[in-house]
Amino acid sequence: MNTPSQDVEDAPASVPIADDHLANIAQHLHDMANRQPHRAAVVVPQGRGAAGQIRYGHFTYGQLDRDSDAIAAGLIEEAVPRGSRAAVMVRPGLDFFALVFGLFKAGVVPVLIDPGIGLKSLGRCLDEAEPETFIGIAPAIVARRVLGWGRDTVRRVILAGQGKWLNSLATASLDTIRRRGREAIASGRIATPVFRGVKPDEPAAILFTSGSTGPPKGAIYTHAIFLAQIECFRSLYQIEPGEIDLCTFPLFALFAPALGMTSIVPQMDPTRPARVAPEKLFEAIDDFGPTNMFGSPALLKRVGPAGVAKGLKIPTLRRVVTAGAPASPRVLETFARLLEPPAEIFTPYGATESLPVASIGSAEILGETGRQTDLGRGVCVGRPVGDITVKIIRISDQPIPEWSDDLVVPDGDVGEVIVSGSVVTREYYGRPEATALAKIIDSANETFYHRMGDVGYLDDRGRIWFCGRKSHRVVLKDATLHTICCEGVFNAHPEVARTALVGVDRPEGRIPVLCVEPVRRLGRRDRERVRGELLELGSKFDHTRRITTIVFHRAFPVDIRHNSKIFREKLAVWAARKRP
């Protein structure tokens, strides 16, 4: 039987904590557990059986709610302070889901960092986040000790999973935390549901950016932001409890239980979506019949052609959501052939600091806007969603301390994209300079804007057109070239996988250089032919006519999270040494 929530640390066990737990993002999980306790919440692969079929483990909603209660109670029993930060380095699986929701319930702030950013950056992020608790699998705990992660702040280390030989490096195991929590609940010391009181504007998590255009920064998510995101995704895509979600990105997988979906974790390395084995995704699809799927453009690019080659259809899917980088019309068209109408692919626009900002479906892209992309007009990312306000302002690389209406450029002009709304994060943890550079205070309206770091424009139908990252624009003596607008023209060539425009300094001044990743390896004669055809394409448009230097690259360096964002800074260094 459920009893009122209480904060064990701050009040006697018999004193309820009003309704503060209603602000907690984990409340959605508890509500769903009451509505559908026996429905599977999370399903994860656990090897293969004797006949070769995948064996799965799962939590029902009731089990996930109870297990996260036990973890939350155990953390409280361990005197983990409310509001303190806990670094989480646990692979996607049952422990990961239960742990993160347990941290939410305990009022402890999980610090989530993509391990693919590299050991050096990962260590810097951990030091910057100042966690008092470190929760990780055995390799992470060993790496922490060897590399000194969080040496000055970590006071307790919790081992998740196997590795009893690590007892000397850990102060407790996650199983011990669970056991202590269950004992506290059984004895009545802690009542269920276990919710430490939190306020909507209190930190719920610190999520680090991918660092694709600079050092990774920790965006502070409040419980209110998470709640707003859930409601926005629910209404935007008409997601209903009881749906089945195939999620290839762990952070998005956390939304599924809160939305009442069953989250299927496929057999893949989530840090390498471009290397996913399509047959393993198809196997999970055949096993569970998902209605929803999230995947980066790199994953769709790999899975779509494989499915088409097999003549597959996925009739259960109602929608596919792809994010992290613009998805080319070619990729969308191929993957859309696997779907049954009216299902389509949606591409929400946003960033770690603000998601979603806008959204558009593949029907509109393939039927209209994709053709404009090929003409160099940018990528349409759709209309603002929810309560998001979007403005386009004059491009500046300097802080803008206070909002002024004079900053806004006319509709149709390219400028810097800024946004305001309930899903927008207010600050970075421990980075006041970065916060000052990324936020604009609107004192008169008691709000603020986040500078997306993107350039774009609004069309006459209120749609946002993305023209590239602000830091990637190529500034010449007589013009400024925006990457996405230029690359869209050249990407239309059938033998081009993708292109990247960079600026290279020469004695005569800065010149634009187009780096080309071909669909297949090209010999010298084919390179010269394709170069000539690309120059012909570029000569047809004013903004691409200046691009006369073209170099070929076998495989672009890309971000680890989505395998889609091109590291143009690295390409610029490479291109400066390269001769066409």
Feature tags:
17 helices, single chain, Rossmann fold, alpha/beta, globular, GMP Synthetase, Chain A, domain 3, seven-stranded mixed beta sheet, eight-stranded antiparallel beta sheet, 32% helix, 580 residues
Structure, briefly:
This protein has 580 residues and is an alpha/beta fold.
What does this entry look like structurally?
This is Long-chain-fatty-acid--CoA ligase. Pfam families: AMP-binding (PF00501). By secondary structure, the protein is of the alpha/beta class. The chain has 17 helices and 27 strands. Among the domains are: 20-198, Rossmann fold; 473-577, 2-Layer Sandwich (GMP Synthetase, Chain A, domain 3). The protein is 32% helix and 24% strand. The strands form five sheets. Strands 15, 16, 17, 18, 19, 20, 21 and 22 form an eight-stranded antiparallel beta sheet that branches. Strands 2-1-11-10-12-13-14 form a seven-stranded mixed beta sheet. It has a seven-stranded mixed beta sheet with strand order 7-6-5-3-4-8-9. β26 (509-518), α16 (524-538) and β27 form a beta-alpha-beta unit. α1 (27-35) runs antiparallel to α2 and α2 packs across α3 (94-106). The termini are far apart.
